[in-house]
Amino acid sequence: MSLRENILTRLSSAIAKLSSSEKSTDSGEVGGGVIAICLLVSGLLWFAFSMQESYPLVMNFPTEVINLDDDKVLATLPPSTVRVQIVGEGVSLFQVYYNPPTISLDASQPEIDIEAAALSLSSSVRVESVTPKSYIPIVEQKKTRRVPVRLDADITLPESFEFTDLPRLIPDSVDVTGGASIIDSLQYWPTEPVDAVGVRDSISISVALKDTLSGITEVSTSQVTLLAVAREFTGGQVTVDVDVRGAPSDKKLVTLDPSTITIRFRVLLEQFNTALQSGQFSATVNYNEIRSDTTGSVRPYLSLPPNLELRDVDYFPETLRYYNYLSTE
């Protein structure tokens, strides 16, 4: 007896028993019960008959790579899924849909016939088409190399702020494992783009690494930490006398014009008063340079306070004239 005939026989028997048992009850109650049973029976019949019909179905089946030695890797990314059009009875399609089998890709083969592998998915369904139909695995020796991490960041500071500790990454390099041809060509590993706007203090941000070679390489970590420190600076200037070093002390041989220069700088806001009062800014010219000079002017050398965070230091005038040079030799 077929499934359809079995269902019909059982349902007819159940309805007959229900009708005979309800003859003594109120006619309204009997009518409502029969209607409910009929609706339920019709739904079950529709489902049972539908499951015996054949239908087409397109599905993406997962894949797995087999027969790949531990010291070997794939240099090309295999398809993670295979698109297959199948035809089968509703019951069979229902089973395949909720428990899809995996298509095995044999890496020991020079070319994998995916279409042939898909034909053995299930004996209860028929395979109509497969995409892709084949895959050529490129197997290489596994290799590991450490490469630097390249930060892809756009960090903006308020106008008066500057970095006192330049942006750095921890770790600043990662171990990458993959095919020899891929690993040998790597120069760095990039991060995902990072935007940090209006940084006014120290920052510590977790930054993800890009996953552009996912599946054919392995990276020792998936993220790094970005560290940076920004502080507020302000501008200042001091005027200092320029000393001549190395000249005989018993005679005045050189006169500088002008004899002073103005040193301009940017300094941490909290160090501004200290910078102006330090008295450690100085400028000198070398007497021997004046003796060998043929241009009539020389550049002074600056000496700056050692314990100040100074930026953008310059001075004016940049050159000094000299005269009254008297040779004593």
First-residue to last-residue Cα separation: 133 Å
Radius of gyration: 43 Å
CATH hierarchy, class of the largest domain: Mainly Beta
Largest sheet: 7 strands, mixed
H/E element string?
HHEEEHEEHEEEEEEHEEEEEEEHEHEEEE
Number of domains: 4
Task: Please describe what this structure looks like.
- The chain is an alpha+beta fold and 329 residues long.
- It folds into four domains: 3-51, no CATH class; 54-137, Beta Complex (RNA Polymerase Alpha Subunit, Chain A, domain 2), CATH 2.170.120; 143-232, RNA Polymerase Alpha Subunit, Chain A, domain 2 (Beta Complex), CATH 2.170.120; 233-323, RNA Polymerase Alpha Subunit, Chain A, domain 2 (Beta Complex), CATH 2.170.120.
- The chain is 23% helix and 43% strand.
- The chain is built from seven helices and 23 strands.
- Strands 10, 14, 16, 18, 19, 21 and 22 form a seven-stranded mixed sheet that branches. Strands 2, 8, 11, 12 and 15 form a five-stranded mixed sheet that branches. A four-stranded mixed sheet has the order 4-1-3-6.
- Helix 1 (3-21) packs antiparallel against helix 2 (27-51).
- It is elongated and about 130 Å long.
- The termini are far apart.
Which characteristics define this entry?
single chain; about 325 residues; alpha+beta; RNA Polymerase Alpha Subunit, Chain A, domain 2; 4 domains; 7-stranded mixed β-sheet; 5-stranded mixed β-sheet; 23 strands; about 25% helix
